[in-house]
Amino acid sequence: MVSTWPASLFEKNCFSPYLGSNWLLLVYLYFLRMYQAQLHRCPWVCLSEAPVETPSCPTWFTGHPLAAAAMASAEAHLEAEALPHISDGDTNEIRAAVEKGDLRAAATKAQEILASEEQIQLHIAVTGESGSGKSSFVNAMRGLQDREEGAAELGVMETTMECSPYPHPQHSHVTVWDLPGIGAPSCTPDTYLKQVHFDRYDFFIIISSSRFTQNAATLAKEIQAQGKRFYFVRSKVDQDVSNERRLYDEEGVLKAKGKQATETRSQRYDEMAVLLRIRQDCERKLARLGIRSPQVFLVCRDDFSMKYDGPRLLKTFLDDLPSEKKLSFLQCLAITSREVLRKKKEELMKYVWLKSLASCGASAVPIPGLSAAVDIAILVTSLKEYCRTFGLSEESLQKLAEQVNKPVKELTDGIKTPLDHEITKDLVIKLLTQSIGGAAKNLPFLLKSIPTFLGPIGSLVSAAMAFPTTFFLLRNFLSDAADDAERVLQKALEGTTQKSHLWS
Questions:
Q1: Residue 120: strand pairing partners
Q2: Which of 232, 316, 332, 350 could make an SS bond with 171 (beta carbons 3.0 to 4.6 A apart)?
Q3: CA angle 39, 444, 353 (to 5 degrees)
Q4: Strand 122-128 to strand 174-178: parallel, antiparallel, or no bridges (unpaired)?
Q5: DSSP secondary-structure letter at 440?
Q6: Per-residue model confidence as pLDDT tens digits over 375-401
Q7: pTM here?
Q8: 216 C-beta neighbours (distance < 10 Å), count
């Protein structure tokens, strides 16, 4: 059986020149070291119970090609702040399993953590005066047209008489709630939050299509007093912009003969000036109602996520969410800018280590020709998740094409990664074969040289390839999918007015 893991392997100073305090990388390094030890007969891997002295510094580390890649990865992706949100208890359980050399226990814990992450719920409340466009906003947040199946019901009168949940169609862990209007007869400001079950929601969006009223200001103060965030959203801004544009001729000059430009209306049409005027007017009125330093976001129903303040509003939501809920929101967020794309990639990259570890668990099966056992189902699910998160599915691409009025083929030309529906078990096995690279050449000989009665060592050496192979597969696929999503976004924005402020 394998000797006790030397304590010095986990001393901070042992790997500090490369890794700092990132102990998760030790999982990878241990299995690499087992692999290296068998190839070069390192003295601290033996078949006895007695612990063996370990060199204080891993001089073997720098010469191994996979180890060199691990160093580069550690520098680029695995700083302490780039780890997923994991409780101290879960961290200690994985650490204890790793220190005992119990890969299955560590993998099982990783699977439990990933499963619990999938259960994280995000609840967004949308409220405001009756008729302000709440239901349309709910649909826009969920990427649905107003008449599409599953959309919130619209009406000229208040149609929301109770709190109505609308889960995101692709990501059911995110729910947008359409609340009764704060001006509805059945809802009064002093009892409103109790009636709508205030504690249920992560944050509130207060909508108005004209001016914000005293009811809105009172509600905002109460939400803030109870420790939650709220956002003022001015809807139907496209209608205001259109009405203002009618006052100007085709050349953008004020139509009325002899009419002079005023402090609020220039002689030549300027859309940015119109938007600024609307925003400042809302903010001044909210300040008079007692709201300190109010911030108002201007949005419209069509192209919500790409027009006016829509992208800035979504980014603000993301920035304000606690770390454990960011991924939930990012997964359902449309890619409307390089910034959103970067944040998606950054957040998903944090979980590559856990997914790689989880794939080495009890459900791992040997892969023909690789001499490594991995859980293919976890990898298939992960790659599909990456595709959906980056909008690389037929449905998402079709919607984007309709939104920007371009053929799907024009957007998809140049995509290198498979789309969501193309991810299969056979494809993953093929990708694993490519990912294992040159290290696979030495592994069959290594495994054949291990006697059958040394099964535990064989298992660990197999893991020496399974863990890094799945890590590099997931990381590389994730990076390629992000690159493809950027290319799609660039093509979608070509020739549009949105490109200047979104493509940054």
A1: none
A2: 332
A3: 75
A4: parallel
A5: G
A6: 888 899 999 999 999 999 998 899 888
A7: 0.74
A8: 26
